[in-house]
Amino acid sequence: MAIASPSGIRVLDRPVSAGEKARYVRAMFDAIAPRYDLLNSVLSFTIHYRWRAYAARCAALKDGDSALDVCCGTGDFARELRRRVGRTGQLMGIDFSLPMLKAGQTKAQADQVATAQADALRLPFPDNAFNAAVIGFGLRNVADPGAGLAEMARTVKSGGRVVCLEFSQPKLPLLRGLYNLYSLKVMPLVGGLVSGRREAYSYLPQSVARWKSREELADLMRRAGLQDIRTRDLTFGIACVHTGTKP
Q1: Residues 154-189: pLDDT tens digits?
Q2: How far apart are CA 58 and CA 66, in angstroms?
Q3: For 51-168+214-245, which CATH class?
Q4: What is the per-residue pLDDT for 24?
Q5: C-alpha angle 122-214-235 in degrees, rounded to nearest 5
Q6: Integer distance in angstroms from the first to the last C-alpha of the chain?
Q7: Which of 45, 115, 128 is nearest to 79 (CA)?
Q8: What is the per-residue pLDDT across 226-246, written as a single tens digit (0 to 9) for each?
């Protein structure tokens, strides 16, 4: 049995430091970037599009607003944000995996999203720059989730929102058991066959199983200086949206 590292972070069943986790996650996403969109749709039965659309609504954006998409990946979340801010709004997406950004380049150009390679723990933007900051299925992969939320809050204007869309655990025991069976057994098999990277699709569901509870994540958002924290379950709790407002 692996002994927890001082940072409390594990990759698969190995204790690792925050820096080691960052390097592992970056290499993993670099490797699966070419098949990432396809597998997202196959493994979620395309439901992830509806999750992102709902989370984008929770950002409470309007025409002409600006938004930051952290860990933007191939740009599916930014596409939903564009529908909210209109053609006059400003969208910025950052990710530390250059192959993921390149895989989403066509979408970024079509949706007029400026993208840059950057670290979620050191966002290259001034304070109070955006009306909202969002992150979709990326926070659990950040080496220090609390620091990542604090950075997002820093870049948001007073009264703006920080939105986190993440996988969670269904509350109903039977559904939770079925979901864990699918995610821990079926996902690695299918993901490995399609991408050739079974370890990546073993890490991803295991990271969900070890992820924070709804209450723990809400507490992290409060510590990041956000208030009016709200939690909304999606698809019986398989995914969850947390929103917080900057005072």
Answers
A1: 999 999 999 999 999 999 999 999 999 999 999 999
A2: 14
A3: alpha beta
A4: 87
A5: 105
A6: 44
A7: 115
A8: 999 999 999 999 999 999 999
Cα 243 from Cα 247, distance rounded (Å): 13
CA distance 213 to 227: 18
Closest alpha carbon to 26 in 43, 11, 7, 48: 11
Tell me how far apart the alpha carbons of residues 240 and 162 are, in angstroms, rounded to a whole number.
Answer: 14
pLDDT at 2 over 90: no
On whether the CB atoms of residues 113 and 82 are closer than 8 A, the answer is yes
Instruction: Give the single-character DSSP code of 139.
Output: G
Q: Which two tokens stand for residue 176?
A: 């939770």
Instruction: Give the type of residue at 60.
Output: A
Closest by CA to 73, choosing from 102, 95, 42, 90, is: 95
Tell me the three-class secondary structure of 144-164, residue by residue: CHHHHHHHHHHHEEEEEEEEE
CA nearest neighbour of 129 among 117, 114, 143, 141: 114
Element (H, E) at 176: helix 173-181
Strand 66-70 and strand 90-95: pairing? parallel
Q: DSSP characters for 58-127? A: HT---TT-EEEEET-TTSHHHHHHHHHHTTTSEEEEEES-HHHHHHTHHHHHHTT-EEEE--TTS--S-T
**Structural tokens at position 131:** 């009306």
